[in-house]
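Hi R.,

Here's the chain you asked about this morning:
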Amino acid sequence: MSNLNNTGYNNTGNCNTGNCNTGNCNTGDYNTGNRNTGDCNTGNRNTGYYNTGNRNTGYCNTTTPKIRLFNKDSNIDFGTDAEYKIYNTIAKYQKQLCEWVSASNMTDEEKEENTKWETTQGYLKINDLTCNGNDVTKEDEQYFRDLPNFNEEIFKTCTGIDLSNKTVIITVDGKNISISKEEFENIKAQFLGKGL
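And here is the predicted structure, written out as tokens:
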């Protein structure tokens, strides 16, 4: 028996592309949970197999893992305000990967580079996702740097936001302090000028 918007077979749940699911929105098979891409999960949002916990990528897990940040485990739980703040703060600085440019808004150069623009009445423009970090507020930059396991290179690779030219981290009395490159250069010049 098939239900609402199932493309798989023998589903009692809705919106499944896999087969034999009683849960909803599964692409895997034999899931009783929801939104699973793996098979035989009773938990929700698993990409692994045979999990009763939620949000697992491996096999035979009964617990829900913490959020991983910068390739390491953190102490942050899924579905919490802390998770949503991470997402929303990064999203403020994200650019669209691509955007449709209609023929009436295309430049002559764009028309030259996209020879089928007349057929499609425009083209799909691929945007550069790199953000030099200058638009990031001081508060948000500090928030990013205070995230568990923060790694500047991983952050840039995953988000396109480059914070490397924005600040320098110095350690004073065991505490990391973020200062602008300009402030750092001024402090360095003062110390070097005194022969230290």
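One quick note: The chain has a mean pLDDT of 82.

Cheers,
M.
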